[in-house]
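Q: Protein A?
A:
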Amino acid sequence: MIHQWKRALLEGASGVFERGGRKKPEIEEEQVKELHAKIGELAVANSFLERKLKPWGGK
C-alpha cells in the first residue's frame, strides 16, 4: 500500500507545484443567478419562520 502511495506521489507531485496548474472552475452565469435567487428565497422563508416562532419561545 505504501509503495502505491509513493508511486502515485512521484508520478503526480510535479503537477502540484507547477505554476498556473489550476484552471478556473467553469461556472455559468445563469447558474449563479439561480443560486442567488434560491439563497434569497430561503433567507425570506427563514426570516418568516423565525418571526412566527417567537410567540412559542423561539429566538
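Q: Protein B?
A:
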Amino acid sequence: MPFDLPRLPYDRTALQPHLSATSLDLHHGQHHRAYLEAVNARIEGTELAELSLEEIVRQSQGSLFDTAAQAWNHAFYWQCLGPRAGGDPQGRLGELVSRHFGDAKRLREEFERVALGLFGAGWVWLVQHPSGALAIQATRNAGTPLTGQSTPLLACNVWEHAYYTDYQNDRARYLEAFWKLVNWNFVASQLRE
C-alpha cells in the first residue's frame, strides 16, 4: 500500500513567526512529499510494499534507505514541533534531563553545540539509550536512530532546506527558534518505561 504524505499536526501558519508557512510548504509539501513518492516508486510490486515505513528503514540500504529514512525522519520532526510549545520539559522527562544534562539549559547548549558542529546536512536527536540514559546524537544525511538501539525522542532537522527560507545560512538563529517550538509532550510520550 503506498504511503501518503501525513498531514501536519497543526495549521501551516501555526509555527509563525518561528517557521513560516512558506517554509512549511517547501519543507513538508515538497521535500517530504518527494521522499514518500520516491519510496512508493521503489517498493511498488515488491514484498516491501507490505511493510511499515519504519520497517523499510530498518531493512533497507542505499537509495531506498535514504528516501525512506528521510520520510520517517520528517514525519517524526513534525510531531516534535508545535504552536504554543517550547519552555522546559516537565515531569519524568524533566527529571531525566536534569539527571543526564544538569538542567534544560545545559541540554539546549549541548544540543546546539552538536547541531552547529555538524558539517553539511543531517539531523540532531535527543535519544534514550536502552539503559534509560538520555543522550544527544547527530546523524549525517538521512541517518536515523532507528537503525541502532536508541529510541528517538526529539529530532531537529539541520538540512539547509529546513531553515534557509526563514534564516538563510544562520543555523544558530534557526536553533534559537526551534526551542520555542519543541513539543515536550510529544517528546515525553516517546520515553520507554
